[in-house]
Write a structure and sequence with these properties.
By secondary structure, the chain is α/β, with parallel strands linked by helices. The chain has a single domain, classed as Metallo-beta-lactamase, Chain A (4-Layer Sandwich). The protein contains nine helices and 15 strands. The strands form three sheets. It has a seven-stranded mixed sheet with strand order 1-2-3-4-5-6-7, with helices on one face. It has a six-stranded mixed sheet with strand order 8-9-10-11-14-15. The protein has a two-stranded antiparallel ribbon with strand order 12-13. Helix 5 packs antiparallel against helix 6. It is globular, with a radius of gyration of 18 Å. Bound molecules: zinc ion and fe (iii) ion.
Length: 263
């Protein structure tokens, strides 16, 4: 793995995670244990195949978070070339699905377990993969750094419920989302709450990173709790900043999501 340093996004007790930029702003992740690999949300196959070959990895699984093409475009080609198994939510729209996984299921990768959490909102069957052993979360298009996915199929209640679940994971959990949207998300957050110090500090640091084209992922759940407005619909400071201090958290969440759609 000598030459892979630019791709390495995480080295844990048992696993390593490679981060591959794809399409305009997607990330594909390769989870590695010894000579075996799992790929999360392959937008395409070519780059993944190259890396598997280069590092002599055997692909065991594709882990899908949801059916959108920018997360499943590589499924069929990778399956054909490697014979791997495609895991994802029970949904006819998941290209090449071999085995449906659902809330409460555990997927073992060597001895490391990944929990499947159901997080409806962006799509109705969206799931995420969380390993408490390694402290990592593959959050697809549910949770982004400083933001969340658009609500295409679910309701604001569902999306807020999904995000509350992720918010309650340990603060040190590293988040690997489906897209590099951090800068625009923080610019939006700063527009809502110009006085929010945590948002300003993070925005400054992310600006510097993006100027040098450095990926901003992974970030920590603890950072999201203070600077992601979609984790803070129940924070009176956010309600006050947008003039909704007497509204419910769901109303505030829905309003902030709508503002972001138009931003
Ligand atoms: Zn999506
Ligand atoms: Fe996406």
């Amino acid at each position: 793995m000598e030459n892979s340093s630019s791709f390495v996004a995480f080295t844990g007790p048992h696993l390593r995670v490679l981060r591959l930029p794809a399409l305009s702003d997607n990330y594909i992740y390769i989870i590695i244990r010894d000579d075996r690999a799992a790929v999360v949300d392959p937008a395409g196959s070519t780059m993944v195949e190259d890396l598997l070959k280069r590092y002599k990895l055997k692909l065991e699984y594709i882990l899908c978070t949801h059916h959108h093409f920018d997360h499943t475009g590589g499924n069929m080609a990778l399956k054909e070339v490697t014979g791997c198994e495609v895991l994802g939510p029970e949904d006819k729209r998941i290209t090449g699905l071999d085995r449906a996984v659902r809330e409460g299921d555990k997927i073992y990768f060597g001895t490391v377990a990944f929990d499947v959490l159901s997080v409806p909102g962006h799509t109705i069957t969206h799931i995420v993969y969380y390993s408490a052993d390694e402290g990592i979360l593959f959050s697809g298009d549910c949770l982004f750094e400083a933001g969340c996915g658009r609500i295409f199929e679910g309701t604001p209640e569902q999306m807020w419920g999904s995000l509350c679940r992720l918010r309650s994971l340990p603060g040190g959990t590293k988040i690997f989302p489906g897209h590099e949207y951090t800068l625009e998300n923080l610019e939006f957050a700063a527009s809502l709450e110009p006085e929010n110090r945590a948002v300003q500090v993070r925005l400054e640091s992310v600006r510097k990173m993006r100027k040098k084209n450095i990926p901003t992922v992974p970030a920590l759940i603890s950072e999201e709790r203070v600077s992601n407005p979609f984790f803070r619909a129940d924070d009176p400071l956010l309600g006050k900043a947008i003039g909704m201090e007497s509204n419910t958290e769901i109303e505030i969440f829905a309003a902030v999501r709508k503002m972001k759609d138009r931003y």
